[in-house]
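INTERNAL AUDIT FORM
Audit reference: QA-55
Scope: verify that the stored structure record matches its stored sequence.
Auditor: D.O.
Record contents follow.
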Amino acid sequence: MTTEIDIKSLVRTIPDYPKPGIMFRDVTTLFGHPSGFRASVEQLVAPFQDQRVESVAGIEARGFILGGAAADRMHCGFVPIRKKGKLPAKAIGQEYELEYGVDVIEIHEDALSPGEPVLLVDDLIATGGTAVAAVELLRQLKAEVVGAAFVIDLPDLGGSARLTELGVPCHTLMAFEGD
């Protein structure tokens, strides 16, 4: 007999971090719970199990933890998407907007083959800026983005809708209203 795990209850909320008015959703408590972590990875990849996925791309940094576990579960490779200047080989970059300014994420230019089916994974989707930039990077490599999976959605901020508008199916395990 298996017991259902309420993975949402394993996510810690930290008020006023990193600045006043923000309710930070901390997944490290979920990651530290063996059954909760395993259940979240299983649920994250479940909608994509019957699809051809050859690689999982994870966005730095918590997306590395989830993406590595998801790649293992799906018996495929893992591709890191990192902050600018962190990858050792030749990389391509994509700018995205922050609340105050612009940042860049990068992927190795030889990380994926044209047409390779890839699943994008991260812990949380808010405005979707980083996720949209990641999709654009994957598409620059001519990979086929079969979907995106996140543990947490902040639907009021519209990130999932932005991915859907790009034709990327977006799967999330839970939502927190507000920001």
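Auditor finding: record pair retrieved intact. The longest helix spans residues 62-74.
Action required: none
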